[in-house]
Each structure stands twice: as C-alpha cells, then as structure tokens.
Amino acid sequence: MLKTALKPRWIAGLVFALLLSGVFVLLSQWQFGRSTQSDVPVDDPAVEQVKPLTGVLQPGTFFPGSVSDQMVSAKGSYDPTKQVLVEGRLMAGQKGYWIVNAFAVDGAPVLHGVGASPKTWIPVARGWIADPAQAGPPPSGTIEVTGRLLPSEAPVPNVDAGAGRASAVSVAELINTWGVSSYPGFVAATSEVSAGKTIALPEQLKPLDIPAQPPNQQINWLNLFYSVEWVVFAGFALYVWWRMVADDYRRSLEDEDDEPDDDFPSEDLPAITKPEQVKP
C-alpha cells in the first residue's frame, strides 16, 4: 500500500488534505478563543474612577457583574454594635481577620416589606488585623467612605464561626445577623473622611488595598462545540485521503488477479489413451 500512496497524485492529494486540515485547525482555535469571554477587561480605567454608590448599585436587586470592582464613595455612619470579624484572611502570608461593619448610607433608597429597616445599609470591610483583641470600634459621626465595590461572598456551609465572627462576607448572613436592609454587595474601604479630613487607621489595623480582580469568564458552549467540530473535520479530511488510497490499492490487487497466468502453456494437453488390452 505504501507504493500506492507514493504515487504522484496521492502525494499531491496528501498535501491538499494537510493544508485543508490546517485550515480546519485554525478555525477550531478561532472558535475556541471565542468560547470564553470576559465580562469587563481587568485594566478598564473606568473602574478606578470613584463614583457615588447610590448611582452605581441599587438595593433589593441582584449584583450585576458590570459594577464589580468599581471604586465608589458613600456618606453615612457606622453602627458600632453591628461589627463582625471575618476569619481566615491573609495579609503578607499571615492569617488574620477582616473587620466588617454595617454602614448606613445617606440618600440610599429605602426598601419596603416585611423585615425592612428604616435605613439601607452596606457592609464595609474596614481593614485587616492579626489578633481579634486588636479590633476596635469604627469612627463615629458622619463619614465618607471610599472603597472598591465587591459582590457578596458565598457563605461557608456547616461552619459556625461563633458570636461576633463570620466565615465569609456574606450579605445574606450579615443582614440576618444585623436585622437590616442592605445592598447586595460590600465595600472594601480604602479611605474614611470625616469633616474633610482623612481618618488615620490605628496602627494594628492594616488597609486592605484590594486591586481589581480578574474578570469572570463566560463559556459560550456553541462556539466550544464548533471548535470541536472543526477538529473532527480536520481528521475527516485525512481519513478521506487514506480511504481513497486504500481503494486504489485494492483495485490494483483486483486487476492483478484478473490477468492471465503465464506459468502454464496455452496448448491443450495431449489426450491420455488407454493401453490396449493384452489377449491371452
């Protein structure tokens, strides 16, 4: 069969099949690249522009991915009785705690219904501490908080962190603990301003300085299916070439079987006569 495959026409056919397969593979890579799409580019400068929280996010709704990582500001006040320590947070390779406080947002829409509070709040992660004993109360009075807006974290199942503790910054768990109406996300604070002056953090409270996170990847299953389909087409092009070579090889064997055999003479063999009977 190798001799058949080395015929000029089949060598040319192999080159064509390889080129066709290469085109199919490139189309597969293109479709695969389109199968994953990011919500927002990581280096989008718009997320670093500070915008009013009340104009970016609405309470009582789902948290849209388009506002994740947006720098926001809000005026309001902390409630020192509504504070939790979120455990298991790393800072420079050391485990510690986030201090998270409930912040009443001035000018925020007021929710209505069963369990709604007179004010609308948002959890604010104020900083990191290494030891729970280092946790202190938030600043009092009217505060302007600036920070990065982040979606609510998923609660850790079957974990009871204890009184005044939390395993995650889960808005659903925090509003049940605090008994308030809340925005569907939280703010990782970068600064706190009171009466036009920046409030300095205590020495033991480290700022979070959370950068913009990598965007969420969404999978387009149709494009992913097309990418696999083009790979199948590439393999099928090579299979068609091999099948055509195999058919040509089989036909050549059949033609050889149909040719007359020259090993024997074509003349008829002489007739065999019976010997004469001997008379007694």
Give me the secondary-structure topology.
Elements lengths: L1 H4 L2 H27 L1 E3 L12 E2 H4 L14 E21 L2 E12 L14 E10 L13 E9 L13 E2 L4 H8 L2 E2 L2 E10 L2 E2 L18 E3 L1 H38 L22
Parallel strand pairs: 2-3, 3-7, 5-8, 5-9
Antiparallel strand pairs: 1-11, 3-4, 3-6, 4-5, 6-9, 9-10
Q: What does the average pLDDT come to?
A: 85
Strand content: 25-35%
Q: How much helicity do the residues have?
A: 25-40%
Beginning-to-end CA distance, first to last residue: 69 Å
Q: How much is the radius of gyration in Å?
A: 39 Å
Multimeric status of the protein: single chain
Order of helices and strands: HHEEHEEEEEHEEEEH
Helix-and-strand structural type: alpha/beta
Total strands: 11
Q: List segments where confidence is low: pLDDT < 50 over at least 5 consecutive residues.
A: none
Strand order of the largest sheet: 3-4-5-9-6
Shape: rod-shaped
The total of helices stands at: 5
General description of the model:
- This protein is α/β, with parallel strands linked by helices and 280 residues long.
- The strands form two sheets. It has a five-stranded mixed barrel with strand order 3-4-5-9-6. A two-stranded antiparallel sheet has the order 1-11.
- Strand 3 and strand 4 form a beta hairpin.
- The longest helix is centred in the C-terminal third of the chain and has 38 residues.
